[in-house]
Amino acid sequence: MGQNVVLDIKHYSKSYGASKKAANDINLTVESGDIYGFIGHNGAGKSTTIRAVVGVLDFDEGEIFIDGHSVKDEPLECKKLTAYIPDNPDLYENLTGIQYLNFIADVFEIDEEKRQTLIKKYADMFEITDSLGDLISSYSHGMKQKVAIISALIHEPKLMVLDEPFVGLDPKASFTLKQIMHDMCENGAAVFFSTHVLDVAEKLCNKIAIIKNGEIIEKGTMEELTQGQSLESVFLEVEDEK
Ligand SMILES: Nc1ncnc2c1ncn2[C@@H]1O[C@H](COP(=O)(O)OP(=O)(O)OP(=O)(O)O)[C@@H](O)[C@H]1O
Ligand SMILES: [Mg+2]
After folding, report:
1. Ligand 1 test: best mutation among 12, 14, 20, 46, most atoms within 8 Å of CB?
2. Is residue 3 very low, low, confident or very high in pLDDT (cuts 50, 70, 90)?
3. What angle is formed at CA 221 by the lines to CA 218 and CA 227, rounded to 5 degrees?
4. Which domains occur in the chain, in start order?
5. Are 132 and 182 in contact (CB under 8 A)?
6. Near ion ligand 2, which residues have CB within 5 Å?
7. pTM summary value
8. 30 lines ligand 1 (CB under 6 A)
């Protein structure tokens, strides 16, 4: 395995019960510095794949490695390296924002000084500092998402995995998140995320995989894939063909 491979998905397959495979023989490699977009129609298998990567969903076949550690055999190692922001963050509603962030910081054993610095930095960036003392139950969807993102960033993950992160974020917060993704990747981390917003993916990602009915039908660098066309037209074309 190359030194700079952060996420390696090898022959991953998953079925829910006896039904047909929701993910079928998925192979995909994310390297340090990549902002890797995962696109595909509703029900294609994006969340199913993402949830296996971050260790919240068991899988039948294949192997997934994070920085060389097996998700199956070394789950704790993998979780230390990974941040996961689900499509619908389910936070502890009866905690305040700051209590929640401190709880996550405790789980990841982040020292006092570092957590304070990072919470302040990201809360300011997402303009949520003034609301951190309020109960999460009083937050809007976007505010909850911001807290989920901050909680993911405070342990400085090597791999950030996001499931449709731009849904529900206001334009400023989307811009901030994109900036953070760039910063992380410049520092050697990697980002893997699903999205339906192809304009954003086209501008943001250096690599893309397209999944259809549980199978990867196209993957590569943005230049290889688009060759001057828009990502949207390439997507619609390959979706139709394959
Ligand atoms: N818990 C579950 N039990 C049974 N089937 C499921 C479950 N979760 C997902 N599926 C099925 O697996 C397939 C892939 O679903 P998945 O949620 O991974 O799609 P997706 O690409 O994330 O779609 P979307 O863009 O709508 O979020 C779908 O056919 C879906 O019906
Ligand atoms: Mg999904």
Report:
1. 46
2. low
3. 85
4. 5-89+157-241 (3.40.50.300)
5. no
6. 46-47
7. 0.95
8. no
